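Me: I'm a chemist; would you kindly supply a protein sequence with its structure tokens?

Assistant:
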Amino acid sequence: MSKEPSSELVSNRKAFHDYEVLDTYEAGILLLGTEIKSLRNHGGSLQDAYVDIRQNAAWLINGSIAPYSFGNIHNHEERRPRKLLMHKGEIEKLRKAVAEKGLSIIPLAIFLNKRGYAKVRVALAKGKKAYDKRAALKEKDVKRSLQRGDDE
């Protein structure tokens, strides 16, 4: 999948720190007019957001899209649940993984595809323990110091 770096509107950078990503999926998202305009102005956040499977549909819960600055009385609610558009088979696979293995479904990014549609990259993930996070940070520091050429 080749995507331009400018097409990513919102990313969840904390997700890779808190979770071990096992599998990723691409889903469409049902948005209102002022929501897509706000997203194009980079007015969104995926901190503390997660995906829930309800009534055979995937929903983005707690994702924040800031109110559109030029909106009027018809502006959208900031933290409303938003429906994700996925195939039934994918939704069923995610539902089973969450029920059986105790995994989480988290949003990684909201981006625009080549046709200009907003998409959400969601991941099936396993939560990291505190010692895993420390080990990952230490490994990252070692890589960074080797890249700089530091002698430690």
